[in-house]
Design brief:
The protein is α/β, with parallel strands linked by helices. The chain has ten helices and six strands. Helix 1 packs across helix 4. The longest helix is centred in the middle third of the chain and has 22 residues.
Length: 247
């Protein structure tokens, strides 16, 4: 029986979202947004909740968030708001950003197999580079693609398609790691199986939008069972003299 991601064998590339997928960043985003929105009197001065953030902000670009929060604001005012928000986020993230459990092990696994890899995010580039640097993965990723680099950001497939093109990888041999509904939608629309990071309360929602597998973190036995099957398939192909891929 094929595993949830078995159709990509032999695996050639891995694509990672960043926020919530590689690292626990939502508390720092929430803190920054909360402070600024309270100062502005947003929602009649009632603080936004983490659930509000997950529903309306998680995985979205600043352009998308700005359109939701302040549909009548001019671009110059939005730019100033997000510049201040990102500065706050950078400060808070620097104080305590940490990886999703098991990420280092998974990155080592990918590196040992010579897989192509990219980070694909709706976050601003400076924000993305900061998080990757804090995680110690600046040398791991061959490239970073942001929503700003594309005509359309997630949930459209454009960022993932751009990453595939730049890496010279096929969607038939690539796995995406995501955590948000719009991220899963983007990966699926780009033709790849998506492994989603989520707790039990969000699992059904991510499966409903197309996630091939939902795991709690990168230590999840379900993930390693699927990866072991990919390894077994690759080894069997090698033993039978099948040419798997070109670099």
């Amino acid at each position: 029986m094929e595993s949830a991601i078995g159709r990509v064998a032999p695996l050639d590339a891995v694509l990672f979202d960043i926020d919530g997928t590689m690292c626990i960043s939502d508390p720092f985003h929430h803190r920054a947004f909360s402070e600024l929105l309270l100062k502005l009197g947003y929602n009649d001065g009632v603080p936004i909740t983490p659930e509000f953030g997950m529903t309306h902000m998680a995985g979205r670009s600043n352009e998308q968030i700005g359109s939701f929060l302040f549909p009548d604001w001019e671009q110059e005012k939005l730019d100033a708001f997000f510049a201040e928000k990102e500065a706050l986020f950078a400060r808070y993230a620097g104080e305590g950003l940490r990886e999703i459990a098991g990420l280092t092990r998974l990155c080592r696994w990918a590196d040992e197999r010579g897989l192509k890899r990219a980070a694909v995010t709706n976050a601003p580039r400076a924000n993305a580079e900061l998080m990757i640097s804090i995680l110690g993965l600046s040398d791991f990723f061959q490239l970073i693609v942001t929503g700003e680099d594309c005509e359309r950001s997630k949930p459209f497939p454009d960022p993932y398609l751009k990453a595939l093109a730049l890496l010279g990888a096929s969607p038939d041999h690539t796995v995406v790691f995501e955590d948000s509904t719009i991220g899963v939608q983007a990966g699926v629309a780009a033709g790849m199986p998506v492994v989603a990071i989520a707790d039990e309360s969000r699992e059904a929602k991510l499966l409903a939008v197309g996630a091939a597998l939902v795991i709690r973190d990168y230590q999840d036995p379900k993930l390693w069972a699927a990866l072991d099957k990919l390894d077994t398939t690759a080894q069997a192909a090698d033993a039978n003299g099948v040419v798997q891929k070109s670099s």
